[in-house]
Design a protein that fits this description.
The protein has about 120 residues and is an alpha+beta fold. Helix content is about 50%, strand content about 30%.
């Protein structure tokens, strides 16, 4: 399995707008192309910002790359994303004023969940 975490630091005044965009635009398109969402959460960081992150699951890194290529070539989705940015002053403004940090990271497991390891630990 391949897991990734998409991570954002968002200005608090933009959190509701950003979450609505995720639920109405990004999530349906991700699911349409085969991505599996483990979950999406947010944590207040301070008076001005909130951390929002999602964990996604794929069968492999190759599957992740294939799905991302399909999403980027989905012309209707690209148009919806561009329209959303335009409604909020353009992509540069959104990233400069509202999305203060964005990361897309591979998650690497530190847990060995094999039955033999679990059985050995019980001994």
């Amino acid at each position: 399995m391949f897991y990734r975490r998409k991570f954002y630091i968002v200005k608090n005044e933009f959190v509701n707008v950003f979450n609505r965009h995720f639920n109405e635009t990004n999530l349906p398109n991700q699911l349409k192309h085969g991505t599996r969402l483990i979950g999406r959460w947010m944590v207040p960081r301070d008076e001005a910002t909130t951390e929002i992150f999602a964990i996604w699951e794929y069968d492999s890194r190759g599957q992740y790359e294939e799905i991302e290529a399909k999403i980027r070539s989905d012309k209707e989705h690209v148009r919806r994303i561009q329209n959303w940015y335009d409604q909020h002053g353009g992509r540069d403004r959104v990233y400069k004023e509202y999305l203060l940090e964005v990361r897309n990271e591979e998650l690497i497991s530190t847990a060995d969940q094999s039955e033999s390891t679990v059985a050995d630990e019980k001994k």
